[in-house]
Amino acid sequence: MTIADALAAVAATESNQPQLFRLSDTYYVKVDNQALPVYGAGCFGEAVEFLLKLFHVFQLQYPYQLKPVYGFFEHLMQLPISIGRSAALSDFVRRL
Questions:
Q1: Which tens digit of pLDDT belongs to each residue from 69-95?
Q2: Cα separations (Å) of 90 from 26, 71, 75, 76?
Q3: How many CB atoms lie within 10 A of CB 52?
Q4: Residue 36 to residue 39: CA distance in whole angstroms
């Protein structure tokens, strides 16, 4: 699979938000139909950290359906949780 193929597959989700994908050993973030390589990301956590920083720097809102997931990532990375505390997220974190 090429980067162009991967971008086409990610674009098929019809989301205009930055999205993370991996091709071979490199993580990429799709932004405006461009694939930005996440240099230095040796693991999924580092790639997610880069993705969260993109949302913060460009002052983007998390996709509504994924807010709890991004809130959980913020919690794991000990960042201020920007989505507000939900009962489901608080209960899930408490059970960890």
A1: 888 888 888 877 776 666 666 666 677
A2: 33, 10, 10, 12
A3: 19
A4: 9
pLDDT tens by residue, 17-46: 788 899 988 999 988 888 899 988 889 989
Backbone angles phi, psi at 65, to 5 degrees: -70, -20
Q: What is the H or E stretch that residue 12 is in?
A: none
CA 39 to chain centroid, in Å, comes to 15
Q: Does residue 79 sit in helix, strand or coil?
A: coil
What is the rounded average pLDDT for all residues in the chain? Answer: 81
Between CA 16 and CA 75 the distance in angstroms is 25
> 88 is written with which tokens?
């489901």
- Does this model's pTM top 0.85? My answer is no
Q: Are 19 and 10 in contact (CB under 8 A)?
A: yes
Q: What is the DSSP string of 39-61?
A: TT--SHHHHHHHHHHHHHHTTPP
Tell me the β-bridge partners of 22.
Answer: 27
